[in-house]
Amino acid sequence: MVVTHQPRSGAPRKLKLSEPTLLFYPRPLEHNFHNAPADGSDFVCATLDFDGGTRHPLVQALPPLLALKISAVEGIDQTLNLLFAETERVRCGHRLLADRLFEVLLLQMLRWLLDHPAQGGIQEGLLQGLGQPKLARALTCLHERPGDAWSLGAMAEAAGMSRSAFAAEFKAAIGMPPGVYLLRWRVSIAQTMLRNGASVKRISDELGYASPAAFSRAFSQVMGASPRAWLKDQ
Question: DSSP labels for 63-105?
Fold first, then answer.
């Protein structure tokens, strides 16, 4: 089977697949499968939505296309066999089970990327940071408690580093300063909360802003529109 992409898309113009392979597109990217039935090839497609869309830190950290040979990722073949079995017939609870299996598949893929960043084309971003134990401690804290009063000193303390060393290593690995990363992560969470009907006041309180106005300014800084205007466009 052959998969083609448009020029300057960041993905290979022509990718020939000769063995079972997982193709993962973190962001929308036009692609075409050339697969004559006589070739004996088969494939199953699924869609994954990240909170915050293309602005999610994980989405931004990944290359345009990940092409992983099934044989290279331990245990992923078993997950795929179960997933294919659920998609081939309709049974009670099959949608729920298929969704959970897809989450397992994604976690297996991300675990492999953490262990093989160069092979996965990971240059900088969330995965690069999670691959460094000290930065991973700080990132985990930011993700678990985004509403805390995170100064540079507090983030550096969570990593067990000095402020200057933390700031330099964070930017080198993630590709942006810690404060910018925290801002974008909070906005990503806010987008999900807005879609779920949360008020601007509730979001500002939960994400650690002094007032709804302060949260709206931060949101507009990233999205180019106020929370209410952005939600209306959705």
Answer: -S-EEEEGGGSTTHHHHHHHHHHHHSS--TTHHHHHHHHHHHH
The answer to whether 55 touches 121, Cβ cutoff 8 Å, is no
Is the same domain home to 97 and 147?
no
Angle at 194 between CA 191 and CA 199, to 5 degrees: 135
Token couple for 35? 């697969």
pTM comes to 0.66
Choose one of 115, 143, 175: the last residue of a domain.
115
Q: Looking at the domain assignment, is residue 120 inside a domain?
A: no
Q: By 3-state DSSP, what share of the chain in percent is helix, strand and coil, each rounded to 5?
A: 55, 10, 35
- Domain that includes residue 154, residue range: 126-233
Please state, in angstroms and rounded to a whole number, the distance separating the CA atoms of residues 98 and 87: 7
Tens digits of per-residue pLDDT, 63-119? 888 888 888 888 888 888 888 887 777 777 777 888 888 888 888 888 888 777 677
For the chain, the distance separating the N- and C-terminal CA atoms, rounded to the nearest angstrom, is 37
What is the C-alpha to C-alpha distance for residues 213 and 201, in angstroms, rounded to an integer? 9
What is the token pair recorded at 127? Answer: 């995965």
